[in-house]
Specification:
Helices cover 42% and strands 14% of the residues. With 245 residues, the protein is of the alpha/beta class. Strand 2, helix 2 and strand 3 form a beta-alpha-beta unit.
Length: 245
């Protein structure tokens, strides 16, 4: 009898980087539980593509992580699909400009909920699941080189960086916890940068180009693989050297 496929829950996986992470893990033989909040049509289309490639290998959980307890419930639902959950990828993230002079409490709460509170809640629920073995948190390489106008976002991502290290200690030796810190991969859909400003940002990158979602997915796949079985508490920058600029 063949070994059952490992199962990964990838939050925020309807599109962009999260979708590519899900595709990569699926190609590597994982069963994948997708998650979305508002992009349900895109998430369902991705699920159907994965199922067309391999039957009974993908499912979808819909949840709004801004709601208290939603992330933990989603993890339990993901674990119930195939009766196990081996990996958690905390990718779901809100991102928006929030100048301090105009900052509203609901904006702060949304950014903290998706970028810090939900990953913590999900990790707690994941640690209780049979088969739980590895967590990867998607952070941001610019946490150490913050920009003005995004205080709650960077505060939350900085907290997620610290949380990654704290959980690596607390959950060892049973569960490995690591992070991936992307640089400029895809411009945000709500980006305020015009073409000249985007060109200037690319010019700051030592490798002089944007990264790709595939590069982030490869880093996640490595950290979840047996090849990384002695790696925990690490945050892997995938940023073309941007953090050094």
């Amino acid at each position: 009898m063949s070994e059952p496929s490992p199962v990964a829950f990838v939050t925020g996986s309807a599109r962009r980087i999260g979708a590519e992470i899900a595709r990569r893990l699926h190609r590597d033989g994982w069963h994948v539980v997708l998650h979305c909040r508002g992009n349900r049509a895109e998430a369902e289309a991705l699920r159907d593509d994965l199922l067309a490639a391999r039957a009974d290998s993908a499912e979808l959980v819909v949840a709004d992580f801004a709601q208290a307890g939603a992330a933990a419930t989603a993890v339990r639902e993901a674990a119930g699909v195939w009766g196990r959950l081996d990996a958690l990828v905390n990718n779901a993230s809100s991102y928006k400009a929030t100048p301090l002079t105009d900052l509203r409490p609901e904006q702060t709460e949304d950014l903290l909920a998706s970028n810090l509170k939900a990953p913590l809640e999900a990790a707690q629920a994941f640690a209780k699941q049979a088969g739980a073995a590895a967590i990867v948190n998607i952070i941001d390489t610019l946490v150490r080189h913050v920009r003005p106008g995004y205080a709650p976002y960077f505060a939350a991502k900085s907290g997620l960086w610290t949380l990654t290290e704290a959980l690596a200690l607390e959950l060892a030796p049973a569960i490995r916890v690591n992070g991936v810190a992307p640089g400029h991969i895809l411009w945000a859909t709500n980006s305020s940068l015009d073409e000249a400003e985007q060109a200037a940002e690319r010019g700051r990158i030592p490798l002089q180009r944007l990264g790709t979602p595939e590069a982030i997915a490869s880093a996640v796949a490595y950290l979840l693989s047996a090849e990384a079985d002695y790696v925990t508490g690490a945050v892997l920058p995938v940023d073309g050297g941007l953090r050094l600029a």
